[in-house]
Specification:
By secondary structure, this protein is of the alpha/beta class. The protein has two domains: 292 residues, pyruvate-formate lyase- activating enzyme, CATH 3.80.30.30; 57 residues. Helix content is 38%, strand content 16%. It has a seven-stranded parallel sheet with strand order 1-4-5-6-7-8-11, sandwiched between helices. The protein has a three-stranded mixed sheet with strand order 14-15-16, covered by helices on one side. It has a two-stranded antiparallel ribbon with strand order 2-3. α8 links the parallel β7 and β8. The longest helix is centred in the first third of the chain and has 15 residues. The two termini are 23 Å apart. It binds iron/sulfur cluster (SF4) (2 copies). One iron/sulfur cluster binds next to α11.
Length: 369
């Protein structure tokens, strides 16, 4: 695999984009969050807006300074693309960085829908990266068709954690059956659709899981991603007021707005067993659903390999050597073994950008020392 070609291509696309932007636009793009953040395990998060009016009781964005006022993200689509191409950790193309739309808003809220569509279109047109979107929305047929026209290959995660207590826990979100109806329509249009069982709420999601899976199957959804709950003090208190006491599942007590995880590995194992009996595929992580949706392979972490193992990029020492030269990094040794890449550099370097570029492109675990 010629690794250098991806960095050259990144520069070429950026040049093309820059010619379409004013210097003010470009300055704004380069200063933006998307130009700086390193990808998280699920990929690089794309913010299409801020705030959310669904008011989920377990939502942490209300502790991060966001509220129910919803605003589209300020960059235009082409400016978002410029920001991503200015990010030292980002690689374009299908082999590049996984992109995850969502996180600090619901990307299909009416106030944000057009901006989300604009970002899907711009990233698809200029970059072609694997895209995943998580949602609780219920779109109209026309809206779904518009999404399929601008970006046909998305991995869609439809969030559903309860069928019985949604009005208490997700007071203003669409009814779970409406979400599943949308999931079924998206599936028929060719999207890769998975149930997003996140956050797993002990004593709620686990008690309903059989019925959640059976209902999802009746709508044609046969794949799922599980995710744990993280709580702040406020979330813990609010859940307790609904009779959901999670104190015995905390390793440490949350202080203020700091998020702490709720232990749920036992619940996940139990859910996997039930899924297995029902022939539902459980992905080890959200990124695995994105990798599978785009018919890729990945062996970057110990949860994998994921997707199509035959699609793992071919790697060899020569191409890694060329990449290091291109990045002006002097090295002593390159070792390739068991889907891992180990590089000994001559001097201590800031490892971030090499680490992300190499692990993204090779889909292998990378160690630099
Ligand atoms: S839909 Fe997502 S972003 Fe909106 S309140 Fe619920 S958890 Fe938060
Ligand atoms: S191996 Fe699987 S879980 Fe790990 S980073 Fe790759 S896709 Fe994600």
């Amino acid at each position: 695999m010629d690794l250098v070609r991806f960095l050259v291509l990144k520069e070429e696309i950026l040049r093309k984009i820059v010619s379409k932007l004013s210097s003010e636009d470009l300055k704004r793009s380069k200063k933006d969050y998307h130009a700086k953040r390193a990808p998280r395990p699920c990929g690089l998060t794309i913010h299409t807006g801020t705030g959310c009016s669904y008011c989920c009781v377990y939502c942490y964005i209300y502790d991060m300074g966001f509220n129910t006022k919803v605003s589209p993200y300020p960059l235009r689509g082409i400016e978002l693309v410029a920001a991503l191409l200015s990010n030292p950790y980002f690689i374009p193309t299908l082999n590049g960085t996984l992109l995850a739309f969502g996180s600090i808003t619901e990307p299909f809220l009416p106030e944000i829908y057009e901006r989300t569509l604009e970002y899907l279109q711009a990233t698809y047109n200029y970059l072609q990266n694997p895209i995943q979107i998580s949602t609780k929305a219920s779109l109209t047929d026309e809206q779904i068709i518009r999404v399929s026209k601008v970006s046909p290959r998305i991995s869609v995660l439809v969030t559903l954690i309860t069928l019985k207590r949604f009005r208490e826990l997700e007071p203003l979100a669409p009814h779970p059956l409406m979400r599943l109806k949308m999931a079924s329509k998206m599936f028929k249009l060719g999207f890769h659709v998975s149930l997003f069982i996140r956050p797993l709420i002990p004593s709620v999601t686990d008690h309903e899981i059989q019925s959640i899976f059976e209902t999802a199957l009746s709508y044609g959804v046969k794949k799922a991603v599980l995710g744990s709950l993280r709580v702040t003090n406020r979330i813990l208190r609010n859940l307790k007021s609904l009779g959901i006491d999670l104190s015995s599942r905390l390793s440490i007590r949350p202080e203020g707005k700091k998020q702490v995880p709720i232990r749920s590995s036992d619940i996940k194992s139990m859910i996997r067993k039930i899924a297995n009996k029902l022939n539902i595929e459980i992905y080890p992580s959200a990124c695995a659903a994105n990798i599978s949706a785009h018919r890729l392979g990945c062996a970057m972490c110990k949860l994998g390999p994921c997707g199509d193992i035959n699609k793992l990029p071919h790697i060899d020492e020569f191409s890694i050597r060329e990449l290091l030269r291109f990045m002006n990094i002097e090295f002593e040794q390159i070792l390739l073994f068991d889907n891992k890449i180990r590089i000994k550099t001559k001097r201590r370097i800031r490892r971030d950008s090499l680490y992300y570029i190499l692990s993204t492109l090779t889909k292998r675990a990378v160690y630099i020392y």
